[in-house]
Structure formats: structure tokens, C-alpha cells
Amino acid sequence: MRVVIQENYDNMSKWTANYIAAKIKAHKEDRPFVLGLPTGSSPIGVYNELVRMYKAGEISFKNVVTFNMDEYVGLPKEHDQSYWYFMHYYFFDHVDVPKENINILNGLAEDLEAECANYEAKIASYGGIDLFLGGIGVDGHIAFNEPGTSLASRTGLRKLTRDTRIVNSRFFDNDPEKVPAYALCTGVATVMDAKEVIIEISGHNKARAMAHVVEGAVSQMWTCSCLQMHENAIIACDESACDELKVGTYKYYLDIEKDERL
């Protein structure tokens, strides 16, 4: 696992966006570049930078297929808190990803189990995901794979914990009861199948999760810790997220990644 420490959120976002853009531009295979994408506050800076790069003529997304990590159950896509809405607002409406290449789970599907199985099959039909971008919750969960979710899990229905609904209530009039109780999301094993994974971690409130993910044991109680077992996993973080790392760990990653510092 690589840990790339940047001074602040903006630098972390720019580094991550530059890494993703470089991978897309270097892709020479006779198939699209398959990109896994998250929602939430962490990736907004990345999306802003990728949009800037597109508008500046530095990159095109015409040969990119995207698969999003998750979607609430029960929200229409036009709802301003649906992840379909989020992705179009921050990214898809501003770049040239073909509409037919955008894949987001349908939380209103009549058969949710079939929706998830078809999503896994569609990912496989493209030869898997080349790069999966993600973030984590304060309890170390990745996507909506809450603590206790099997590390062998696949895309499926997830019940959200009370803590997650409280955290997300800031988008729902600060009322946890307005936050959907269920979501569809890619499984831990689905993310692990990607050829590369980049997880963004920023802020002091994520420092405990960061320490568990980087230094702790691999555990279903910190689902993102599974990345210790991934051959090509990167944690892109800011200084504040490192507050609970051991000093030796922090210095080690600063030293070996010093040329990546913005």
C-alpha cells in the first residue's frame, strides 16, 4: 500500500486528479478505460480539478466508462440528494463522458437483487475496473460497506447504521430519519477486484480511521483495511488525516513518497 501525504485537501485533490488523468491518457488498449467513482465530500476537489482539466483541453473522457460505488434506495434520480444527481451536478454535466458509458445503481429498481447482479455482470463485461476512486467514513467504511460487512461481499443491498445516517443527516435538514435507511453499493470484493484503488482520506475526523486502515489489522470492522491486501492500492491523504499515525509510519511514507509532494 502506498500512502501519499499532501499538505492539505486541495493538494490531495490535485494530486489524485493528476494521477487519474495520467492513467486515462496512458490507456492504449482496444477497450474503454473503466473508472470507479464515489460520492461524498472527499472527491469534490478531484471532480473540480478534472473538470478544469477537461475545459482546458488537457483531457477527454470520451473513451471512459464509469461505475459509481453506491446509491440510496428509494430516492428518484432527480432528488437533490440522490447520488445520480450528485454525480451529474459535480462531474458528468461538465465533461464529455458519453451518457451511455455512465453506470449508476438504480435505487428504485423493482428487483434490487437483480439490479445488483446485473451491475456486477456489466463490470465484468468490460474486463473489470481499471481504477477505483473512493473515500471512507469516520468508522473506516468504504462505500456503504458498514463495519461488519464481509470482506468477500459483492454489490448488494446494505442497511445503513445509525451513525452513518446521523453523519449524512446534514444533507437532509439535519434529520437522520430523513436519510434513507438502505442503499445499494458495490461490495468490498468488487472494489478489491479493481486493478488499482485510490482512497482519499482528509481531515482530523478521519484520523482514527486512517490509522486503522494503514497500521491496524485487516478486519471487517474497518472494511477499508482490506486495501492492505491489494497489490496496487494508494491512500491519498492530507496532513490532518495523519494525526493518529505513529511518528515512524508518518516519516516513512513522507520519505519514500517525497517526490510526490506538491
Structure explained in plain terms:
- The chain is α/β, with parallel strands linked by helices and 262 residues long.
- The protein has one domain: Rossmann fold (3-Layer(aba) Sandwich), CATH 3.40.50.1360.
- The protein has a seven-stranded parallel β-sheet, sandwiched between helices. Strands 4-8-7 form a three-stranded antiparallel β-sheet.
- Strand 2, helix 2 and strand 3 form a beta-alpha-beta unit.
- Helix 1 crosses helix 2.
- The mean pLDDT is 96.
Give the rounded overall mean pLDDT: 96
What percent of the residues sit in helical stretches (DSSP H or I)? 25-40%
What share of residues are in beta strands?
A: 15-25%
Number of helices: 8
* Intertermini distance: 20 Å
Classification by helices and strands: alpha/beta
Strand order in the largest sheet: 1-10-9-6-2-3-5
Radius of gyration: 17 Å
General form: globular
Query: Which blocks of ≥5 consecutive residues have pLDDT under 50?
Result: none
Largest sheet: 7 strands, parallel
CATH architecture classification name: 3-Layer(aba) Sandwich
The count of DSSP E runs of length 2 or more, i.e. the number of strands, is 10
> H/E element string?
EHEHEEHEHEEHEHEHEH
Main CATH class: Alpha Beta
Kindly give the count of domains.
Answer: 1
What is CATH's topology name?
Answer: Rossmann fold
Main attributes of the structure:
262 residues; Rossmann fold; seven-stranded parallel sheet; 10 strands; globular
Quick structural summary:
The protein is an alpha/beta fold and 262 residues long. Helix content is 32%, strand content 17%. The model has no long low-confidence stretch (mean pLDDT 96).
